[in-house]
Amino acid sequence: MGQPSVCDLLSMACHLSTSGSYTVVIIPLRTGLYSQEALRFYLWIKRMKDLEKEKDALWSGLEVLEKSRLWYVQRLVENRNLRSAGSRNGTAVYRKRRAEPPSCLPTHIQRVNGSLGSIMSEPTVSSNPCLSDPLADSDLRWQNTVLTKKVSEKNRRISRLELERKALLEELEDLQAC
Length: 178
What we know:
The chain is mainly α.
C-alpha cells in the first residue's frame, strides 16, 4: 500500500478535528510522510508537547510553593508570638499549651521539607522526562496485568498437576495393597 495522498490526509484531519479530541497540524514536507524528515518533525513536536507539560507542572508547583511559603511565614509569626507571650506570662501560657494535645505538625513539616529537598537534588527528575509519562505507566500496568494472568494460569496448572499426582499416588497405593 502506498503513501496516503494529500486529500486523504486532509480528510483524516477534518474527521479528527471535528471529534474535538485532537489538534491537527498539517505541515507540508518536501519528502514522504514516512521519511526521516517527517520522523524528526514528529519527535520535535512530541518533545515540545512534553516540555509544555513540564512547564505546566512547574507553574502549578510554583503556585503551591508560594502558598506554602505564605503558610510557613504565618506559622513562624504565630510561633514567635507564642514564644514572646510565654516569656512574658511564664507559666500561664505553659499550662494552656500543656492542655492542648501534642501536634504532629513538626513531623509533617520535616517530611515535606525532606521531599522538596530530595526533588531538587535528584538529577534524574529533570533529566528523564519519561518518569511521569502516562504511556510508560500504562505500558507497565498492561505488562503487570499480562504477567499476573500468566502467573494465575501457571498456578492453576500446578494445582491440576498436584491433584493428578495425588490421584495417581492413591491409585498406586490401591494397586500395591492388592
